[in-house]
Design goal:
CATH topology of the largest domain in chain A: Cytochrome Bc1 Complex, Chain A, domain 1
Largest interface: A-B, 85 and 80 residues
Number of domains of chain B: 2
Strand content of chain A: 15-25%
Largest sheet of chain A: 6 strands, mixed
Number of helices of chain B: 16
CATH superfamily of the largest domain in chain A: Metalloenzyme, LuxS/M16 peptidase-like
Structural class of chain B: alpha+beta
Helix content of chain A: 40-55%
Oligomer: heterodimer
CATH class of the largest domain in chain B: Alpha Beta
Radius of gyration of chain B: 24 Å
CATH architecture of the largest domain in chain A: 2-Layer Sandwich
Number of strands of chain B: 12
Strand content of chain B: 15-25%
Shape of chain B: globular
Shape of chain A: globular
Largest sheet of chain B: 6 strands, mixed
Radius of gyration of chain A: 23 Å
Distance between the termini of chain A: 48 Å
Chain lengths: 436, 452
């Protein structure tokens, strides 16, 4: 199945994707800005995300928090999110409210700064610090993302530092930073706009021209440093975190082919074979048969710059210590590495992925988000229609080639969380424990 | 620059909740079918009147365990084989139990539907409940309970229920059961619960997606209906509060950077006649991003990443809760703001502007809620579980629009009880205790996180 797609570009560089679907009177507007935590300068970790919060604090013609209010009054849903390499903003509204959603997005893209005040920045800084406390500091395993980034990317790499940021750097962020970041990255030529759902193309084009065409093109953004790293880590690395958790949990990461490459699809299928749903290898072996884990999953990060990461995530049963957990997981990976996988396992993984691909096209918001993804990274939103075929082209031979190249002992980084109170019983590990 | 002229909406397009049919098959099984022509997907959702509220006393967690064990093997195939057969069809079956029903559900591409339903019928008609898998599921639940001790959000929810309801109420303990009750469950318990409650007369199959009523009827008649006829015996629900006086409980988490807060009291049963005014009242109080509580705690004070309130609608009166997590040092002022917002919405009529925000949102967002086959199926299941009228979704928007500021004031005065508020704080007792005791929000008790 294929969804209809039209694309074009405004003179100011805004890349537009339209995809009509008239089954329900709903339309989704979705913007991706090609900027994320990777673009932050030294001493400003967390800024891209703090900036995302500021985009809901009003713009030239929109009051503080009015963006939220106007969309909810219109019967719509909305939000935004920040990732290592992009930031997105989106709303789904009843289709007769399309113009409102477009105007609100255009107003903050074109004219954000008049609405920015020190007081708003201070409040959102507090909100974000509380977000960090809530999602990272006061949540078991909440530091996983920043610890893993630190462990697997070299210090000079843009993916090395924390996305949510440190409390110190968040405290330093100023209105000048806001102005500079806005001028550099929040420009039409650094953004893509996708609309999916119930609208008429001609009308949408008219509205987009009206609201977005007056926004001037940007001056270009500083290039990211080279991000490509060797195919494998080269030597195993590990960190043990003694933390306020009840059971041990291992995140085992492998450097893997960059998102969107042909080999990426083999890596994605490999992660599904290892840890997608209960019939996967790790779940079946560690949770069901050997009963040393209460959960086992695997996934790819889907990073589109440099290299991707494939992560195996296994939570130990309470009676299983970290050394045994690590040994058992490594043994499973070694087995896959030495013997490869069978076509039946590949078929199971692809069948599940296919159902997920079709399911994800049901909501207008998700459709628009995927169109923006492919438009941002590859300038080719049509890739949304080629995913199923790309997965179906993966076979056991390609998966086993990927496994041979990437799952070996020289390409493993292990991040182990250990209950703080349980460390004493594991004297071997205590020496390696970090401050957490 | 971008125009200052705010756009006006165009003419709204009509929307109707997907039409559906309802029938009772000759076996006694109820079938609800919503044909939705959009994508080649079908969702099957089986609901059984075997939710956690009918757990026998002392065997809390049995309904959940039974539902989970349902797909762990038949006489012919073990659990691993079953799982693999489903997943090779591109589908993963989920089963579980909530307070008011047990469920089994799967979503599958339309061209694999026939095989998937035949397999599902086979799996659930004669579950073998292997001892080994029952013991494994119990151990996994025990691990989950242990993990709650270090997970402040789940711990706060759990402790809130415990302090809210009388100990003899099923609602006082988690739907999955306690460490003690789960440890005591056996294969025989599961088998007997299954035989008593998994009966065709207590079961509805909801089908939504790329399928006709006729096709659904044929598939369901062929694959299901093997269970015993009739319905199981219910159990009277006790949902009385533990106390009618305000009380504050601190569950100690040393050095916690935030206090996880729950404030509330018993709410209303789902079928309460004030459902609509109460829902709109809650939207203004804490249900929306632009609600009073979120605007106050997050946008005015920066105390939190987010604060909300909700009524947990169940067959019996589930809790009304305000939930948030605030920086430890502002725990007392944040609580004061929450209490004052609850008082304020009872004191004066909300403005027309506040009413229209809630009303227009709940009315307008209605079609957006039913974009997927799983969302449609679960909406239809709710009609059955809560015995709502067949035209419930067709009249929903009109009923939301009927609510007035007077109705909201009445709902707030009748259904919010500031003098009965229970407060649970998962946080650093040493750091916050003194300032909390000065609030006068009821007797203060400090508890350990561990259940010892």
């Amino acid at each position: 199945m294929r969804i209809p797609i039209e694309t074009y570009e405004l003179d100011n560089g805004l890349f537009v994707t339209l995809s009509e679907d008239h089954t329900a009177p709903i339309v989704a507007v979705n913007l991706w800005y090609h900027v994320g935590s990777a673009n932050e300068r030294a001493g400003r970790t967390g800024f891209a995300h703090l900036f995302e919060h500021m985009l809901f604090q009003g713009s030239a013609h929109v009051g503080s928090n009015e963006h939220f209010e106007l969309i909810q009054r219109a019967g719509g849903t909305l939000n935004g999110s920040t990732w290592l390499e992009r930031t997105n903003y989106y709303e789904t509204v009843p289709s007769h409210q399309l113009a409102l959603a477009l105007w609100l997005e255009a107003d903050r893209m074109g004219d954000l700064l008049p609405a920015m005040t020190q007081e708003k920045l201070d409040t959102q800084r507090d909100v974000v610090k509380n977000e960090r406390r809530w999602a990272v500091d006061n949540q078991p395993y909440g530091t996983m993302l920043e610890k893993l980034q630190e462990l697997v990317f070299p210090r000079s790499h843009p993916f090395h530092h924390s996305l949510i940021g440190s409390m110190e750097d968040l405290s330093e962020a100023s209105l000048d930073d806001i102005a500079q970041f806005f001028a550099t990255y929040y420009t039409p030529d650094n953004a893509v706009l996708s609309i999916a759902g119930d609208f008429e193309s001609a009308e949408a084009r008219r509205l987009i021209a009206r609201y977005f065409a007056p926004i001037p093109k940007g001056q270009g953004k500083p290039p990211l440093p080279p991000m490509h790293l060797p195919a494998v880590f080269g030597r195993p690395s590990r960190e043990v975190v003694s933390d306020n958790v009840s059971v041990s949990r291992l995140f085992l990461a492998f450097r893997s082919p960059v998102y969107g490459s042909a080999e990426y699809y083999a890596a994605s299928v490999t992660s599904a074979i290892l840890g997608l749903r209960k019939g996967s290898r790790l779940h079946r072996s560690l949770v069901r048969d050997r009963q040393i884990a209460s959960d086992a999953t695997s996934y790819t990060f889907d990073l589109a710059k440099g290299n991707d990461l494939l992560v195996v995530d296994v939570t130990a049963r309470p009676e299983i210590g970290p050394s045994q957990l690590e040994e058992e997981v490594e043994r499973e990976i070694d087995l896959v590495y030495s013997e490869g996988v069978a076509q039946l396992e590949v078929d199971r993984a692809i069948a599940l992925i296919e159902t997920d691909l079709v399911s994800s096209l049901q909501s207008a918001g998700e459709r628009a988000d995927r169109l923006s993804l492919f438009a941002t990274y590859f300038r080719k939103p049509q890739l949304i229609n080629e995913q199923a075929a790309a997965y179906r082209a993966v076979n056991a031979e390609r998966v086993n080639a990927l496994i041979a190249e990437r799952l070996g002992p020289e390409n493993r980084a292990s991040l182990m969380y250990v209950p703080r109170d349980g460390v004493e019983s594991e004297p071997m590990l205590a020496a390696a424990v970090s401050a957490g | 620059m971008v125009t200052a002229v705010r756009p006006k909406p165009s003419a709204p397009r009509e929307y109707r909740f997907p039409s559906f049919t309802e029938e009772v098959l000759p076996s006694g099984l109820r079938l609800v079918v919503a044909p939705v022509e959009k994508l080649p997907l079908v969702t099957f959702l089986i609901v059984i009147d075997a939710g956690s509220t009918i757990d026998p006393s002392g065997k809390e967690g049995l309904a959940a365990l039974t539902a989970e064990a349902l797909l762990e093997g038949t006489r012919e195939f073990d659990g691993a084989q079953l799982t693999e057969r489903f997943e090779r069809l591109g589908t993963a079956v989920e089963s579980g139990a909530g307070w008011d029903s047990a469920f089994v559900k799967l979503t599958v591409l339309a061209d694999r539907l026939e095989e998937a339903t035949a397999l599902l019928g086979e799996a659930i008609s004669s579950p073998a409940f292997p001892e080994r898998e029952i013991e494994r599921l119990k151990a996994e639940r025990l691990a989950e309970i242990l993990q709650l001790e270090t997970e402040p959000r789940g711990l706060a929810d759990e402790k809130f229920s415990e302090f809210l309801y009388a100990p003899e109420s099923r609602y006082a303990t988690s739907d999955g059961g306690t460490a003690e009750s789960v440890a005591g469950l056996s294969r025989a318990d599961v088998d007997s619960f299954f035989r008593s409650h998994y009966r065709v007369g207590a079961t509805t199959v909801v089908v939504a997606g790329a399928i006709t009523q006729l096709m659904a009827r044929n598939l369901v008649s062929k694959s299901f209906s093997q269970w015993t006829s009739g319905v199981g015996q219910g159990r009277a629900l006790i949902a009385s509060p533990r106390t009618n006086k305000r009380a504050v409980s601190i569950v100690n988490k040393r050095d916690a950077p935030q206090s996880e807060l729950r404030v509330g009291h018993l709410g209303l049963a789902r079928k309460h006649p004030d459902f609509f005014p109460t829902m709109v009242m809650n939207a203004v109080l804490g249900g929306l991003f632009g609600s009073r509580i979120n605007m106050n705690l997050r946008e005015e004070h920066g105390y939190t990443y987010g604060a909300s309130s909700y009524f947990d609608w169940r067959r019996g009166p589930g809790p009304f809760v305000v939930a948030t997590a605030v920086q430890s040092k502002v725990t007392a002022p944040a609580l004061r703001e929450i209490f004052s917002e609850i008082e304020r919405i009872r004191a004066d009529r909300i403005s027309e502007e506040e009413l229209s925000l809630a009303r227009d949102y709940l009315d307008g967002v209605f079609p957006i809620r039913y974009e997927t086959t799983t969302a449609i199926a679960s909406a239809l299941a709710n009609l059955v579980i809560y015995t709502l009228n067949t035209d419930y979704y067709d009249t929903y928007r009109a009923r939301v629009r009927e609510v007035t500021t007077d109705d909201v004031l009445r709902a707030a005065r009748n259904h919010l009880h500031p003098d009965q508020l229970q407060t649970v704080i998962v946080g650093d007792a040493a750091a916050i205790k003194d300032s909390i005791s000065q609030l006068g929000f009821g007797e203060l008790r400090v508890h350990a996180a561990q259940n010892d």
